[in-house]
């Protein structure tokens, strides 16, 4: 196996993905994008818009794949027609496979330097014995989907050896070496027995192209050191994580990177999960269903279009990814709209145990059970953003950075959650957040915004706004909206921001170019004046009248006197 070297090219690639929208997958190759796209390491260092996430990603290892890995010369290839026997490949070269194989495998065990390319040209492989395709050793392995071909790999084995041997095959396509998949044909992979992955590599795994469908009872597509998707159309259904990288040995590995292609994931656990960094710089990534949508130690969105649906957190940056799962539960308690966990860190004592909204204060008094040290004026609160999931919690060092692209989140837990910080300097973000007060559309120790468009709507109990020292103005509006209602922020007759609720919400945060600190803006709901809100004032970020309390003509950002304080 080629030993990956530590380079900074992924940083340049990330910049290229953010700055060269629409570049081809070949343009975005890991090995060539840094120079080929005209973005040098010096550019990265001098561009303040990107240096914040450049530092986060700089130590990730380089991809093993070349952009032309999907090419091959058929005249120099070995042709193999599959029959009722195992196939063993022991030397580098190109091998074109066709035909049907049942209860046998194609195994690559090549110790020499050089790539082994398997060209799948209308193969149907099914095995109840072990993985249909196994790479035990190779410099690099490449699977090429021949143009116009349809290929099916079905694994019905229980893989009992994997229970005691961590290097035993446990996926329909299993590789101990770095693996690349390319070509323009189709590939359908399924694993039917319990806890079996679809496609897995113990090294790095790169998807260059292809029309690939995966249906797995464990993880869908897993690269231990890294998983990179540069192109192709992927549809992944997995009982556990959809896209995954698992190496947690050091900061140079364990990353997931989507730079191109169209990826759709339906996952029982995380849509995409990285023990290290998780980066999206291009393509279309749709997490159609998940427990948590995107989870990593650090998360960077630098380009592309991401749509995330989750029953818990939409995005979750945490240094303790191994502890976050649908099986163990986390601090949100929002799965399936269920009750808030008792004593969870997001839940101040006295919050409703069913995760529902809190009762309004009686005569202005704080609801029974609210923390005794809850501030009675507009100041205070973690990060100047008010009480929320990050309240009184120390950062674990995680960073969630949004520098470009379009992100839409529909979450029943926290919409955007970082156990460290959130930094936004570009892109467009819309969060359809939770309806229960045990979670918030935003949940972090600090949210700094200097650019881009942010709309975050959700419940009011844990609402968090950007920090008051953010370079770009923002407003937080405490306003109950039913699904289908539209709220607008106007500067005179100019609509600065607009949001149509997809579900009932009680709080909306807007930040747009043109919002100015200290400026009052008119709030309209369905075209009727509903009050005013003042940008950036601390009260706007930390206060927040009780849902439904705002009356036309009142400041809706929470400019309230002590004694009127409601949950935030």
Describe this structure in words.
This protein has 568 residues and is mainly beta. 6% of the residues lie in helices and 40% in strands. The strands form 3 sheets. It has a 14-stranded parallel beta barrel with strand order 5-7-10-13-16-19-22-25-23-20-17-14-11-8. A hairpin with a 2-residue loop joins β36 (520-525) and β37. α1 packs across α4. It is elongated, with a radius of gyration of 25 Å. It starts with 8 loop residues before the first helix and ends in a 26-residue tail after the last helix.
Oligomeric state of this protein = single chain
Instruction: Give me the side-by-side strand order of the main sheet.
Output: 5-7-10-13-16-19-22-25-23-20-17-14-11-8
Strand content: 35-45%
The coarse overall form would be elongated
Average per-residue pLDDT, rounded, comes to 79
Percentage of residues in helical conformation: under 10%
Residue windows where pLDDT falls under 50 for at least 5 positions: 1-50, 327-391, 538-555, 558-568
Gyration radius over CA? 25 Å
Cα end-to-end separation: 54 Å
Global structural class: mainly beta
Number of helices: 5
Please tally the β strands and state the result. 37
Largest sheet: 14 strands, parallel, barrel
Primary descriptors:
about 575 residues; mainly beta; 14-stranded parallel beta barrel; twelve-stranded parallel sheet; 5 helices; about 40% strand; disordered C terminus
């Amino acid at each position: 196996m080629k030993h990956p070297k530590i380079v900074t090219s992924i940083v340049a690639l990330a910049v290229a993905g953010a700055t060269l929208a629409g570049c081809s997958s070949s343009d975005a190759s890991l090995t060539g994008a840094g120079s080929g796209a005209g973005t040098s390491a010096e550019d990265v260092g001098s561009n303040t818009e990107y240096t914040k996430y450049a530092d986060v990603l700089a130590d990730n290892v380089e991809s093993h794949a070349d952009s032309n890995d999907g090419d091959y010369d058929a005249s120099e290839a070995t042709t193999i027609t599959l029959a009722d026997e195992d196939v063993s490949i022991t030397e580098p070269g190109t091998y074109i496979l066709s035909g049907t194989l049942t209860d046998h495998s194609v195994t690559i065990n090549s110790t020499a330097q050089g790539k082994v390319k398997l060209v799948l040209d209308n193969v149907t492989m099914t095995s109840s014995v072990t993985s249909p395709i196994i790479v035990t050793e190779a410099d690099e392995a490449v699977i090429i989907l021949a143009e116009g071909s349809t290929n099916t790999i079905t694994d019905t084995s229980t893989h009992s050896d994997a229970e005691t041997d961590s290097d035993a095959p446990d996926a329909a396509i299993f590789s101990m070496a770095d693996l690349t998949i390319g070509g323009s044909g189709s590939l359908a992979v399924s694993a039917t027995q319990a806890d079996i992955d679809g496609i897995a590599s113990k090294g790095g795994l790169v998807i260059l192209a292809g029309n690939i469908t995966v249906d797995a009872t464990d993880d869908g597509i897993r690269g231990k050191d890294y998983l990179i998707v540069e192109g192709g159309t992927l549809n992944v259904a997995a009982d556990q994580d959809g896209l995954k990288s698992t190496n947690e040995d050091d900061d140079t590995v364990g990353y997931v990177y989507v730079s191109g292609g169209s990826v759709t994931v339906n996952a029982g656990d995380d849509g995409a999960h990285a023990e290290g960094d998780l980066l999206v710089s291009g393509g279309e990534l749709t997490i159609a269903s998940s427990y948590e949508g995107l989870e990593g130690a650090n998360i960077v969105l630098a380009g592309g279009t991401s749509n995330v649906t989750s029953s818990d957190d939409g995005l979750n940056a945490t240094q303790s990814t191994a502890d976050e799962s649908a099986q163990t539960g986390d601090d949100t308690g929002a799965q399936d709209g269920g009750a808030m966990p008792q004593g969870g860190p997001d839940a101040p004592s006295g919050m409703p145990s069913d995760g529902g909204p809190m009762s309004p204060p009686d005569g202005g008094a704080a609801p029974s059970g609210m923390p005794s040290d809850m501030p009675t004026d507009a100041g205070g609160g973690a990060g100047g953003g008010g009480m929320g999931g990050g309240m009184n919690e120390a950062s674990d060092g995680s960073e969630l950075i949004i520098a470009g692209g379009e992100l839409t989140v529909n979450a029943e837990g926290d919409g955007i959650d970082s156990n460290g910080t959130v930094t936004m300097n570009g892109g467009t973000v819309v969060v359809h957040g939770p309806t229960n007060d045990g979670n918030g559309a935003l949940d972090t120790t600090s949210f700094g915004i200097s650019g881009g468009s942010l709309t975050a709507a959700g419940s009011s109990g844990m609402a968090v706004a950007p920090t008051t020292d953010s370079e770009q103005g923002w407003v937080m509006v405490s306003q109950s909206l039913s699904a289908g209602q539209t709220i607008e922020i106007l500067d005179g007759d100019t609509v600065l921001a607009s949001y149509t609720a997809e579900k009932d919400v009680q709080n909306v945060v807007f930040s747009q170019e043109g919002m100015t600190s200290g400026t009052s803006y008119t709030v309209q709901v369905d075209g009727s004046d509903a009050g005013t809100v003042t940008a950036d004032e601390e009260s706007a970020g930390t206060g927040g009248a009780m849902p439904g309390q705002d009356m036309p003509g009142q400041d809706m950002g929470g400019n309230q006197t002590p004694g009127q304080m409601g949950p935030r």
